[in-house]
Design a protein that fits this description.
- The protein is an alpha+beta fold.
- A four-stranded antiparallel beta sheet has the order 1-2-3-4.
- The protein starts with 7 loop residues before the first helix and ends with a strand.
Length: 116
């Protein structure tokens, strides 16, 4: 199955809880829980030591607001990108959140997750 064949509602039912988990576990600096829905290729680039350093150094990765706003989605190839407006609990301003989802071995997995 290709994720782009799902309806917007079906994709959002998967994406919103995954995004909420990323925010929660980033705030908690919990590597294991943060990466639990990552695709194998994502895990290769997100090893525990480097992620730990990022959690420790980056103020943005801590204190993310649990309130986010869905902005839209882009379907391309075998992936869908879901965009969010993300706020920080301590820093003023807004960030663009990007969540890339696709199928791996019959399950929806995260193939990309970033804040800009």
């Amino acid at each position: 199955m290709n994720i782009i064949e799902k309806t917007d509602e079906e994709i959002l039912a998967l994406a919103h809880p995954m995004w909420a988990d990323l925010v929660k576990y980033s705030n908690e600096q919990n590597y294991g829980a943060f990466t639990r829905n990552f695709a194998a290729a994502m895990l290769l680039g997100a090893n525990e030591i480097e992620m730990g350093k990022q959690f420790a150094r980056s103020e943005l990765t801590k204190n993310l607001s649990e309130k986010y706003e869905y902005l839209g989605m882009i379907r391309r190839g075998e992936y869908v990108t879901v965009l969010y407006k993300q706020r920080h609990a301590r820093k003023e301003g807004e960030w663009l959140g990007r969540l890339v989802l696709g199928y791996e071995k019959g399950q929806v997995k995260i193939f990309g997750a970033t804040l800009f």
